[in-house]
Amino acid sequence: MELKQLWAVVLRRWWLIVLPALVALVLTLPALRQIVSPPSGYAVTIRFTASQVPSATATQSFQDQSYIPWLASEYAVNALAMWMRTDSFAREIVDNLKAQGKSYDVETVRSAISNTDNARSIMTLYLVWPDPDEIKLFAQAATEVLQKRNQVYFPQFGAQGAVVTPMDAVIVTRVPAALATRLQPLFRILIGLAVGLVLAFLAEYLDPTIRNRREVEALDLAVIAEIPRH
Fold first, then answer.
1. How confident is the model at residue 44 (pLDDT cuts 50, 70, 90)?
2. Are 150 and 161 in contact (CB under 8 A)?
3. Burial class (CB in 10 A: 0-12, 13-18, 19+), 28
4. Is the dihedral of CA 97, 99, 103, 108 positive or negative?
5. Most distant pair of Cα atoms in the chain: their distance
């Protein structure tokens, strides 16, 4: 099909193309505000170190005094970083907040934990949340849980547990909404246009109407005469 023929189909079925896009536009109108003034969120990033306090004995070799504590720190950081991704860690934060008179559910706290990471003897907790005061509470509670509850889930740390030390203060920063979130209303309208195009060409394919000389000749029929429109 030539471009002129395609364009003729678009002109002929334009209403069928526009209709789904209009429906998508009407359904998306409440969300169009986020394109002009997108909602912003807040983030907190905290780095921690973690290790057991080595026992001090006179018979320790240099390897026992230096290498083994650093290796143990890496294992501790790796284990705690994995723990921060679990339901049990979120539940501990919920319990910590409940003791402060704050009520949250586990799923809410889990959704605020954007990611965790670890490299060598440093682990990082990433939090993202729409409310700056609440995300600060989550960060402080997470720090307390790491410091006071790690031996419950890792008995290999011993009765005293690992010493977890935050390397950053709880600083709440504002983060813009993701570009995909901002443009989501436009994507819906574009999908409506795409659906309209599909419907237009499907209707054209199913339409048995003959409109011009070329379509008659394509059927191996002879054209006796033509009646002009004007």
1. very high
2. yes
3. middle
4. positive
5. 114
pLDDT value, residue 58: 45
| Distance of alpha carbon 124 from alpha carbon 134, whole angstroms | 19
47 phi, psi to nearest 5 deg: -100, 145
Provide the token pair at 206: 């199913």
Helices 3-12 and 14-28: angle between axes, nearest 10 degrees: 60
pLDDT tens digits along 21-32: 899 888 887 766
CB 96 within 8 A of CB 145: yes
181 or 12: which leads in pLDDT = 12
Residue 223 makes CB contacts below 8 A (sequence gap 6+) with 213, 216, 217
Q: What is the pLDDT of residues 64-101, one digit of tens each?
A: 566 777 888 999 999 999 999 999 999 999 999 999 99
Q: Is 125 helix (H, G, I), strand (E, B) or coil?
A: strand
CB neighbours of 144 closer than 8 A, spacing ≥ 6? Answer: 96
